Amino acid sequence: MRVGFNIPDLTSNGSALIETGLINRIVLAADPGAGGGIQQFLLLFGPLFVIWYFLVIRPQQQQRRKVQQMLSELKTGDRVVTTGGIYGTVVGFRDSVVQLQIANQVKIDVARTAIGGMQSSEKSEKDKLDK
User: Fold this and answer.
1) What is the pLDDT of residues 15-28, one digit of tens each?
2) What's the pLDDT score for residue 119?
3) Structural domain boundaries of the chain?
4) How many contiguous H segments (helices) and E segments (strands) does the chain have?
5) How far lies 127's CA from each of 45, 55, 79, 124, in Å?
6) Burial, 119: exposed, middle or buried (Cβ in 10 Å; 0-12, 13-18, 19+)?
7) What are the 10-residue block averages of pLDDT along the chain, 131 residues in total?
8) 79 has which bridge partners?
9) Residue 82's closest CA among 90, 73, 94?
């Protein structure tokens, strides 16, 4: 018993030679020429990249700039919400840590990057009216 690949016998009927010839013709017919390959690639993927840039990459860059600007402009007394959903008032800073007061005599330290955004002024005014 032989283990391995069966190598066709080319001397018996020549069918393997014909099959190989057909495969070569199909493969060569699929390649219209090396000169047009890069042009076709750019023609197909160029517009896709431009669309991807304007729909995905550019909005992410703008959002990142907004968040960076908001984090750099944080000051004591700002009402913020963390990415974990905790609302608090900024009471102090250390390197990359922000100290938030979330209730009377309750302060927590969070990473500056964990600040998700500023609390809207409507909520601040509503909280003041409730007290």
Assistant:
1) 555 566 656 666 55
2) 87
3) 37-73, 76-116
4) 4, 5
5) 52, 38, 11, 5
6) middle
7) 56 57 60 69 91 96 94 92 94 93 95 90 59 56
8) 89
9) 90
Tell me the two tokens of residue 38. Answer: 């890069």
Where on the phi/psi map is residue 49: left (φ > 0), alpha (ψ -120 to 50), or beta? alpha
Cα–Cα distance for residue pair 25/96, rounded to 1 Å: 65
The residues, any chain, with a CB within 8 Å of residue 76's CB and separated by 6 or more, are 90, 91, 92, 93
CB neighbours of residue 55 within 10 Å: 9
List the end-to-end C-alpha distance of the chain, in Å, as a whole number.
91
Distance CA 54, CA 43 (A): 18
Reported pTM:
0.55
Q: What is the pLDDT of residue 110?
A: 95
Both tokens assigned to 89: 């008032």
pLDDT at site 28: 58
